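thread: overnight batch results

M.L. [08:02]
morning all. the overnight job finished for the chain we discussed friday. pasting input first so we're all looking at the same thing
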Amino acid sequence: MRKLKVTEMQRISVEEFQSSSKLPLVVVLDHVRSLYNVGSVFRTADAFRLSGVYLCGITACPPHPEIHKTALGAEDSVMWKHFERTEDALEALRQEGYTLLAVEQCEGSTMIQHFEPERDKKYAVVLGNEVKGVQQQVVDSCDGCLEIPQFGTKHSMNVSVTAGIVMWHFAQSVLL
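M.L. [08:03]
and the structure it wrote out:
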């Protein structure tokens, strides 16, 4: 078995990415502090060809060297917008026909393995602050909550890891 060289992977250009069809999924970052987490979300959003990333509140925006360090240029391919208030981002998405889902531990949340995205729907998933999670008023603005089961002693995961799990779930459900 031989590892492929980058030149053998036949990756598309930024321009081809921007004009290509996208997974009907937007990731909304609700007051995410770490620029490395933001960059990681961009890079994973590029890998799964997401429709976009919305950066809300204190979440930093490109261009920024710390975002670029983990995004490795994905901040240039993935469409992004900034909103001062997460609720405004959600309202804009709702107006565009998106179903809004917080990724949070909530009463009545749906475990992600039991959630089957519908192929003809557009979704936005909200990921919260590294310490406080998704704000309650943002959870209240959503159509539902997804939860990732956890079996250890901790009650949370890194936001970029959570983003990767959620994006993979949507991608394998819709694209594969």
